[in-house]
């Protein structure tokens, strides 16, 4: 079992990574000051596969488990689902000490975390992520949220979990699309922070795509280490944490405009990363050969690089103004300055962004 520590004073916690760690949920949780009842939030597919194991692990440790199922899909990351979970928590008599445990991918984790942050002004929160994307990204760092018709993740909080358990065994049941989606965030860490990891991915992507346990454990550990260091420096995204948003400025716009579900989060982020790399080259920040390496790695991971033909550049531009990084009506962009280094550019003019979007359409080269 590997252990990545995230140091945030009295909000510090451990991320345990390895085959079978979800069976240790009860033991690891009893080491923390939490109550004897837990709300286990999951979706029907994940429940069928893993809820009995997690329930057994918690029960062995003397914790009563109340299960709550949320249908799978980004559209259920909504205030209505949160209300349903509050009702379930009240009905089960959960008090301020009782943890909310998220078992599933990013939707379950973000929603359950939002409920944990707000039910009785905050109860302990445990993340048991079962997708690659959730293990490398969304379960770590404390961004919890629900969506609103005006934007993705637009209603939320920073609320750290007390424990993260990433069981690599759960990745064996993922579809290829879910693996791809997680890889977009994995590649992001190489681009923004870790050139050696980017090169490792170039050399070892086939092992990762084959879901080899050692390769997966390495990818999760390196991703969590990179994310932990960024979050420790700037927990609430006052500045530098925004680099974790590479590819998301355009990505969130495409995800929403295409209709949630047509592009996975990772696919939309990959397209957004291609646009950011093009813009960085146009602005003289990134060398063209590095843009090629970024595009090649994303493409080898099976990720899309083109802005869809049925979504206009004007629509993407308009949607980007709703981004949480927009300040005083001006778009902020995260740009790769080299492989291993990203910069934050506030106050971007519209014209170069629109040109980069147009240059990332089918048949544009
Ligand atoms: O943890 C962060 O910070 C990130 O930006 C990670 C992103 O990959 C993640 O998708 C995040 O939820 C996006 O945040 P948002 O603030 O743009 O909604
Ligand atoms: Zn993301």
Automatic annotation (TrEMBL):
Pathway: Metabolic intermediate biosynthesis; chorismate biosynthesis; chorismate from D-erythrose 4-phosphate and phosphoenolpyruvate: step 2/7. Zn(2+) binds at residues 185, 248, 265. Keywords: Amino-acid biosynthesis, Aromatic amino acid biosynthesis, Cobalt, Cytoplasm, Lyase, Metal-binding, NAD, Nucleotide-binding, Zinc. GO terms for biological process: amino acid biosynthetic process; aromatic amino acid family biosynthetic process; chorismate biosynthetic process. One of its GO terms (cellular component) is cytoplasm. NAD(+) binds at residues 72-77, 106-110, 130-131, 143, 152, 170-173. Catalyzes the conversion of 3-deoxy-D-arabino-heptulosonate 7-phosphate (DAHP) to dehydroquinate (DHQ). Belongs to the sugar phosphate cyclases superfamily. Dehydroquinate synthase family. This is 3-dehydroquinate synthase. It comes from Desulfoscipio geothermicus DSM 3669.
């Amino acid at each position: 079992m590997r252990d990545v520590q995230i140091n945030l004073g009295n909000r510090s916690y451990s991320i345990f990574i390895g085959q079978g760690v979800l069976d240790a949920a009860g033991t690891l949780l009893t080491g923390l000051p939490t109550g004897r009842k837990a709300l286990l939030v999951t979706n029907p597919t994940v429940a069928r596969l893993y809820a009995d194991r997690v329930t057994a692990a918690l029960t062995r440790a003397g914790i009563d488990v109340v299960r709550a199922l949320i249908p799978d899909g980004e559209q259920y990351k909504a205030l209505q689902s949160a209300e349903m979970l509050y009702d379930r928590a009240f009905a089960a008599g959960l008090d301020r000490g009782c943890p909310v445990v998220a078992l599933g991918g990013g939707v379950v984790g973000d929603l359950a975390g939002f409920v944990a942050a707000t039910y009785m002004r905050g109860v302990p929160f445990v993340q048991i992520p079962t997708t690659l994307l959730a293990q490398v990204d969304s379960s770590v760092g404390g961004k919890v949220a629900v969506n609103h018709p005006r934007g993705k993740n637009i209603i939320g909080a920073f609320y750290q979990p007390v424990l993260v358990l990433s069981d690599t065994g759960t990745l064996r049941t993922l579809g290829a699309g879910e693996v791809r989606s997680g890889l977009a965030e994995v590649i992001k860490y190489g681009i923004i922070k870790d050139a050696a990891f980017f090169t490792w991915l170039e050399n070892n992507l086939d092992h990762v795509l084959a879901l080899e346990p050692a390769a997966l454990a390495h990818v999760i550990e390196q991703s969590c280490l990179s994310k932990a260091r960024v979050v420790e420096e700037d927990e609430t995204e006052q500045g530098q944490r925004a680099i974790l948003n590479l590819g998301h400025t355009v990505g969130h716009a495409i995800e929403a405009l295409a209709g949630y579900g047509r592009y996975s989060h990772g696919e939309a982020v990959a397209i957004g990363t291609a646009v950011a790399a093009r813009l960085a080259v146009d602005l003289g920040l990134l060398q063209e050969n590095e843009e090629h390496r970024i595009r090649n790695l994303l493409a080898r991971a099976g990720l899309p690089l083109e802005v869809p033909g049925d979504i206009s550049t004007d629509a993407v531009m308009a949607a980007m103004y709703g981004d949480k990084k927009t300040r005083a009506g001006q778009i902020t962009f995260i740009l790769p300055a080299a492989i291993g280094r990203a910069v934050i550019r506030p106050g971007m003019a519209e014209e170069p962004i629109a040109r980069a979007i147009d240059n990332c359409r089918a048949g544009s080269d």
